[in-house]
Specification:
alpha+beta, Arc Repressor Mutant, subunit A, Alpha-Beta Plaits, 4-stranded antiparallel β-sheet, 5 helices
């Protein structure tokens, strides 16, 4: 990963904003939207990718159509907050595809996990056979997601452009 381009100008921020909205946009369309030439736009996008401002591209999948009907947020507390124990937990949980997000928190809870399962029974199996078997876990509290009304990727570019 190169780190030579770290200062972003307004055009770079516009490119990032447009890519966040539509990662499949063509280079020509993107160049037109940010008012630069396609070759210049391509160079800028490549530089943003090389410096890890753009970490990847992916599609938003409709989980329900693929029969993943349960989303649960798990609040995990560990017995110890020593860095070694935190890393052990993060490594342990990283291998389970059901865990779609893992956030270390400051406060009453050590980790917040977003877990996706086909149904309640699949989640229960994951909880009892995998999650609660993690080393140094002291407690797990869960909340079933009933409805999601907003889920935006990335950052609010509107605040900086």
């Amino acid at each position: 990963m190169k780190t030579q381009k770290t200062k972003l100008d307004k055009i770079d921020l516009q490119i990032l904003s447009e890519l966040q909205l539509n990662g499949r946009i063509s280079n020509v369309e993107l160049a037109n939207l940010v008012n630069i030439s396609p070759p210049s736009c391509l160079r800028r996008v490549k530089a943003l990718e090389d410096t890890n401002f753009v970490k990847g591209y992916n599609a938003e999948i409709n989980a329900e159509l693929l029969n993943f009907k349960v989303t649960v947020f798990a609040y995990v507390g560990l017995e110890s907050q020593a860095e070694k124990d935190l890393q052990i937990f993060e490594n342990y949980i990283s291998v389970f595809p059901e865990v779609r997000e893992c956030h270390m928190l400051m406060g009453e809870v050590d980790f917040l996990l977003k877990i996706v399962a086909k149904d309640w029974d699949d989640f229960q199996k994951f909880l009892t056979a995998k999650l609660t078997q993690a080393p140094k876990i002291s407690n797990v509290k869960t909340s079933l997601n009933i409805r999601s009304t907003k889920s935006l990727p990335g950052i609010p570019f509107e605040a900086i452009i």
